[in-house]
């Protein structure tokens, strides 16, 4: 044994690492700027991941038998599906919301997934940066958001046996430390879990380790991501919307950015619960040959963290 070699990180045996179409530059079900789904599946397995998310509904095959066959023969398993909701708009959007949630939840359950990642609606368009509504919710809209999310959690659990994990996200109404805390304090911890995305939370000024310490019982799922602090400083100074910020490289591969993932993973391990930790490096659009080398390096880095 080399006495000068760094000590191996303690194994994170409660953390199940995966990746997602997002790390291959996939934001939409069908877009010529994105790699074909077959290439994503081939490369995510080649990079050393076992778990994946479905990504935008319709990007991967939506017929369960075919999707199970395509993932299974590559040694891949599905952790979760993803939906966007606008529950702050009140009961009038419920039927439309449930229609799109149900199809994603049904596919997720059919292929063995256990979670549904719920992302609030953007308040500005992620392509054009046009403001679609106010970035600030009224007290009534906060009530709609909290009660609607609880209703959604109950329905998803009862109908599909899935756990929802609400994802704080840049350019949505659940973004900063204050807004995340307000949302968590307004919802039932027995019903509504949180997907902590380390990159988005840092992008919006939050401290992931502190969030885990304060609201550990709410952490149901993790997205692993880092931001480039130099790029972020310019984004904040100019008020750049999230979509253009991604094209400027605000999200970077670890360990080149913040937050440091080692303490985040250690804090998550300390919760004593099994958690998915899915790598998501936003980089839409990107050259088709860019994602695989980054994915390999990221997976190797996470192994040095014990994951």
From TrEMBL:
Gene3D superfamilies: Divalent-metal-dependent TIM barrel enzymes (3.20.20.150). InterPro entries: IolE/XylAMocC-like, Xyl_isomerase-like_sf, Xyl_isomerase-like_TIM-brl. Transmembrane segments: none annotated. One of its GO terms (molecular function) is isomerase activity. It comes from the Bacteria. Pfam families: AP_endonuc_2. Residues 41-303 form the Xylose isomerase-like TIM barrel domain. Keywords: Isomerase. This is Sugar phosphate isomerase/epimerase.
């Amino acid at each position: 044994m080399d006495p000068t070699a760094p000590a191996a990180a303690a194994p994170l045996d409660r953390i199940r690492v995966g990746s997602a179409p997002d790390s291959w530059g996939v934001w939409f079900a069908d877009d010529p700027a994105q790699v074909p789904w077959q290439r994503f599946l081939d490369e995510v397995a080649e990079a050393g991941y076992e778990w994946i998310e479905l990504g935008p509904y319709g990007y991967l095959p939506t017929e369960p038998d075919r999707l199970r066959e395509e993932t299974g023969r590559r040694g891949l398993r599905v952790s979760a599906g993803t939906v966007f909701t606008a529950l702050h708009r009140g009961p009038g959007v419920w039927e439309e919301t449930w229609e799109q949630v149900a199809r994603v939840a049904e596919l997720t359950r059919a292929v063995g997934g256990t979670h549904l990642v719920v992302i609030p609606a953007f308040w500005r368009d992620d392509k054009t940066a046009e403001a679609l509504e106010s970035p600030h919710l009224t007290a009534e809209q906060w009530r709609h958001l909290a009660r609607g999310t609880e209703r959604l959690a109950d329905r998803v659990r009862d109908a599909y046996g899935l756990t929802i994990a609400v994802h704080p996200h840049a350019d949505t109404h659940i973004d900063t430390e204050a807004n995340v805390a307000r949302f968590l304090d307004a919802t039932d911890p027995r019903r509504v879990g949180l997907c902590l995305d380390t990159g988005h939370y840092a992008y919006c000024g939050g401290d992931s380790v502190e969030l885990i310490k304060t609201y550990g019982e709410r952490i149901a799922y993790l997205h692993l991501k880092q931001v480039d602090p130099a790029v972020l400083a310019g984004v904040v100074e100019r008020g750049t919307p999230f979509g253009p910020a991604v094209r400027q490289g605000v999200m970077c591969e670890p360990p080149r950015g913040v937050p440091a993932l080692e303490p985040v993973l250690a804090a998550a391990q300390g919760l004593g619960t099994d958690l998915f930790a899915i790598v998501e490096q936003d980089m839409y659009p990107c050259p088709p040959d860019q994602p695989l080398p980054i994915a390999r390096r990221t997976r190797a880095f996470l192994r040095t963290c014990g994951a």
